[in-house]
Write the C-alpha cells for this entry.
Amino acid sequence: MARSVPLLWVLLPGLAALEPLSVGLAIGVASALTGYLSHPRFYCSYVECCPRAGQRLNATALKAQLDNRLFGQHLAKDVVLKAVLGFSNNPSPKKPLMLSLHGWAGTGKNFLSQILAEQVHPAGLRSKFVHLFLATLHFPHHDQVKLYKEQLQNWIRGNVSACPSSVFIFDEMDKMHPGVIDAIKPFLDYYEEVDGVSYRKAIFIFLSNAGGDLINKAAFDFWSSGKRREDIQLKDLEPLLSVGVFNNKNSGLWHSSIIDRNLIDYFVPFLPLEQRHVKMCVRAEMRARGYAVDEKIVQAVADEMTYFPKEQKIYSDKGCKTVQAKLDIHEDLVMREMKARG
Amino acid sequence: MKLRRGALRAALALVLLPLLTPAGAVEPISLGLAIAGAAASALTGIISYPRLYCYFRECCLHRHDRRAAAALQEDLDKKLFGQHLVSKVVVKAVRGFLNNTNAKKPLALSLHGWTGTGKNFVSKIVAESIYKKGLQSKYVHQFVATLHFPHAHSINLYKDQLQSWIRGNVSICPRSLFIFDEMDKMHAGLIDSIKPFLDYYELLDGVSYRQAIFIFLSNAGAEKITEVALDFWRNGRTREDIQLTDIQNALSVSVFNNKNSGFWHSTLIDRNLIDYFIPFLPLEYKHVKMCVRVEIDSRGYTVDEDIVSRIADEMTYFPREERIYSDKGCKTVDAKLDYYYDF
C-alpha cells in the first residue's frame, strides 16, 4: 500500500495524457471479447438458441410430464417415450424421426405433440424452431397444390439448415391433399445430406383422425371380451392402422409414398377416453383454475358429456373437449361451495 | 370571399405582433426548466397509468371488467322476454369465459331458434356489455351471410378474405367479438375456413385466438325446439320446466344433418368446437304483450292495456288449433303500434 503511492506519483503526469473515451472503449472491447471467448453462447440466456448437437433430452422430465398431464393413453406414452429418447440419445440417427399420431377427436394428439415440442425446445409451440401446419389453414385450396409443394419444401429446407433439430407438426393430415406430403418425402428418407443440408436430427409429427374408428372398434372389442384397457398392445393395432390409413381416401397419406417406403417410424394410436379419464381431465382443469376439487361437480360434468356406443356408453364422444365450457356452467356451484367453506 | 379572409388574417397578425415583443423577456433557463418539468410530469403520467387515453378513445379490453357480467345479467333480465334458458346460459358462459385468464379456446356460442325470438337482440346485448359502443365498436364484427357472402361461386375468395380479416383483427385486439348471422344460409365450406381459429391451439402463426368470442345465429333447429316446447305444453308442464338438456342433444343432431343448416357436415360440430348450443323458444301471447308494453314505454306513451291486448290479438299464432306461439315472435309489433297511436 505504501509502495504504490510513490508509484502513482510517478505515473500521474503520464495519466493526464490518457484520453477517457478511448480508454473506456478499449476496456469495453477487451471485456466483451474475453466474455465471448470464455462462453460463446452467453446470449442464449436472453435470446432463443438452437439446441446444440450434443444436448440430450431429459428423460425423467418427459416421463413426469406425460404421466401428469396425459390421461388414458398408455400406448401413446410408451411409444413416444421410447421413440423420442432413443432418437435423442442416438449420436447419429440415420433418418429424421417421424411419428404418426392417429385417434379420435379430443384424445390428446395435439396435447402430446405440444408436450414433445416443449421438451425439445423449451418455448414449446412458441419457439421459432417449432413449426405447426394446419391443412385447412395453410393449404386450403386444392388447385394450388403445386405452389404449396414448392413453398413447403423451401420452408423446411431453410429452417432445418438454420437449426438441425427443428420440429415440424402437421395437423389435420386427413384433410391434406395427398400430393403435398409427397413433396417432403425426400427430406424424410435415409439420405446423409440433401443439397448440403442434413435432415437427420429433425422431428416430423403427423396428426390425424384417420384410423380413429378402427382404433375405437379394436378398443371396444377388447372391452367386450372382458380384457383390460391396459392390455392392449401396439402390435394389436399397428397393422390395422397402417393399412386402414393407407387405403382410406380421406387420409392425407393415401397411397402416399411415405407409407410405401416405410418412412414412418412409429404409428401412435390414441384410444378413446372413458368416463374415468374425463373425470381426470375435469380435476386437472379445476386444479389449474385454483379451485378445490369437488367430486360432486366432477361427477356432474362427467355425466353431462355424451358417450358412445349407444347402448353401452363407455367412451366419450368428444374426449376431453368442452370440459372447460361445462365447468363454467357449474362454476356457480363451485363459487358457492368455496364461499360456504370460507 | 378569399380576399376578405386574407385581409382578415393580415389584420389579425398585425394586432398580435406587439405580443411577440415580450418574448425578448423570456428567460432561457426558466423556460427550459418549465419545459423539462412538463415533460417529466407527462412521462410520469404515462408510466403510472399507460392507458390514460382509454378515457377519451375506445381501447381493446385487456383486464376483465367486473361490470360486464353484471350489466349483461341485468340487461337480459329486463329486456329479454320468455327465454329463461338463454339468460341463464349466456350469462354463465360469458362470465366464465371473461373470468378465465387461461382459456383453452375461443368462446363459440350457437344461438338457434324461431324468428323474432331475440337472437340478434341477445348478441347486441352481449356486445354492449363487453364494449360500450356495442355493435358500433371497432372490435365487434358482424357478418350477414346473405350480404357479405352472397355468391356461391366466389367461395374461395370469401374464405381467404374471412381468414385474413379474422387474423388481422384478433392480432390487433385479442378480445374481439365476431357475430355471424344467417348461418343457415351460409355456404357449408365457408365455416370450415374459420374452424382452425376456434380450435384448441395455443398459437396460430404467432396469433393467439383464445380470447376471442364467436357468436353464430341461425334459424336451424327451430322446428325441433318448437316440437319440444309443444310437448311440454301438451303435457301440462310449464315453460320454465324446459331444461337445456332436453333440447341440446336433439338440436345438435338435427342441425348437423339438416342440409340447409350452415353447419351441415361441417367440422365444427364434428370436432365439438361449439361450446354452447343455446335454444330460443317461440314466444307466447303474454310475451308479445310484454314486447308491446316495452315499445309503448320507449316511445313515451302511456300504456293502455286495451290497446296492448288488441295489438297482441292481431298477431298470428301457430299451431292452427292451439294457437299458442306467435309466428313472427315480436317482429312487426312496432309497426302495428303506429296504427293504433296516431299522434
